[in-house]
Design a protein that fits this description.
Elements: E1 10-12, E2 15-17, E3 24-29, H1 51-63, E4 66-71, H2 81-91, E5 94-96
Parallel strand pairs: 3-4, 4-5
Antiparallel strand pairs: 1-2
Length: 97
Amino acid sequence: MTGAPASGRVQTVLGPIDPSALGWTLPHEHTAIALWHVPNRWDYWELRRDEPVIVEELAAFRDARGGGIVDLTLDGVGRDPAWLAGLSRATGLHVVM
């Protein structure tokens, strides 16, 4: 195959970036899950929107040379683009949703 390599972009919650800017990425994360609407749920994760704790953990990943995360939280159990954008701004990590 010949020709120029494909030049795509990665869509983050703060806008598109060059793929080379992404760096080491955790590909399957959930920064918050809300299951309160599910009857008889087994909430063993007890994931809450405890922003100081989540920012601290994401910052530790960043400090270990992490570049981004992919948050796979589904609509209906807590997906929130504004929340993720805030985490991205607070930590300097790229966040893909």
